[in-house]
Amino acid sequence: MDLSELADLDALSARDMIRDGEINPIELTEACLARIDEHEDAVRAWTYLDPDHALAQAQALYEAQQTGAPLGPLHGIPIGIKDIFDTFDMPAENGSVLYRGRMPDRDSTAVAKLREAGAIILGKTVTTEFATHFPGKTRNPHNPAHTPGGSSSGSAAAVACSMVPLAIGTQTNGSVIRPASYCGTVGFKPTYGGISRAGVFKLSHILDHVGVFARTVGDAALIAEALMGYDPRDTATRMTAKPALIDTAREDPPLEPRLAFVKSPVWDLADADVHDAFAELVYVLGDAAREEELPAPFDTVVDWHRWIMNADLAQNLAREYAEGRDKLSAMLIERIEDGLTVRAVDYNRARDWIAVLNDGLDVLFENYDAILTPATTGEAPAGLENTGDPVFSTIWTFCGLPAITLPIFEGAHGLPIGAQLVGPRGNDARLLRTANWLANRLAS
After folding, report:
1. Of 143, 168, 176, 347, which sits 20 to 30 A from 220 (CA to CA)?
2. Alpha carbons 239 and 172: distance in angstroms, whole number
């Protein structure tokens, strides 16, 4: 295989070929670096990349394999890391000049798990400023005049360009699902607490999630399974058995899944492209999809989410605001100052609604395998001044539900649009199986 063919391999295929000796980690890493060299000037997905260090990791993994050492589930697979994850051997700058040159002394738990699984930490991908809304330098790989989304912009763009088969990011509102939709990749955000956030820059303990980017549902399952699990450093994680994501995702469902098509209270914010695409999709799915409405309390989730997120921003960025305000964007300052006005009673009321809304959704999920809903309001908007609207992720992030977006639509300007599936809290494997079923059905 030539370098271009190697770079285009999905992660599961590359893993199997490495195990069978058909290719090795050095060749795959060289292919990824060649693809980066080809596209990085236009896409700008990376904030830190050391090719020699990446190749040294690949060499070590190759040599270990030659000795007959046991292989991890991600052995030899290069992965991009959003630059709010601590990495002991690379800078972690959080998308801000205030952290320029910061070198952590230990890995975040997620990065440590990736290394343990045999992954090659290829480099650090661009994040927006403190993983909020002010854009970084990344461009949409389908059209560089359009936003890639945010805040995990570099991770989504790198996977979309086949610079890496896999990448990780975070979501506090729509920062995995939105850029995945805009860039045309699979984006998967597990259940709240499914992946440890220890060693990740904290925006909101209540809302922060770690998520993944891949080019197939199976690849998303592969990396997510390696990452999920209990971590005493993150109190949101739970001491439970790790779900069998890969095996379950590739199974045929015992019965044809039933999908609840939920427009949600923000349906009117979606473009005509989205309205038309979902009308056609629901028609094609026939009896497998039925429209359902959410009750009135869901109309207020956008406000509740804003109260929690901005108040937590104000708390967690207090030092940066006090000592480095002149280095913060006007967009971030506005959100911090809004957070300073949130009353404690409103914050606590919003937090209490999370459990109430999940109780209501549990009733819906008694009759459906997943919710089908837009991932974004439409294609990636033109311009690089903002990262687009995350509003179609807000409810599901607020409730902590697992969500995945599939790149199955195309808008009027030829840019991808994702369809989002949302599953019951804690049922990540079942959601991935349903997503794989939908992808296969639409491909047939």
Report:
1. 143
2. 23
